[in-house]
Amino acid sequence: MADSFDERRRALEEDYFKRKDRETLARLRESMREAAKARGEDVSTLGCPRCDGRLHEVVFDDVRIDRCDRCEGVWLDSGELEHIISQEKASGRWLSVLWPGGTRGQTTE
Hints:
Number of strands: 3
Radius of gyration: 19 Å
Oligomer: single chain
Strand content: 5-15%
Distance between the termini: 46 Å
Number of helices: 3
Number of domains: 1
Structural class: alpha+beta
Helix content: 40-55%
Order of helices and strands: HEEEHH
């Protein structure tokens, strides 16, 4: 019985720290955006690790991912892949992929 409580406690701790990591990254990105705007630079200040292009933020399933403007590479920060995977596992997700726009906010009669 104690093992199940320990597992639950560890799972809750992991969720807490993942959430805190996402919040910290969001605050860091926002401060970087504000600093770039104050200097009059483009918001995208990071270079692509693969080529000499620049990374720009793109929103995918409520997750901000970084995409290169040259090689079209996609770069994820900590926790973003897990969030996308959890969105994929949500009920009815496969229907929205097969039938975009046809499953959200509609009721069947």
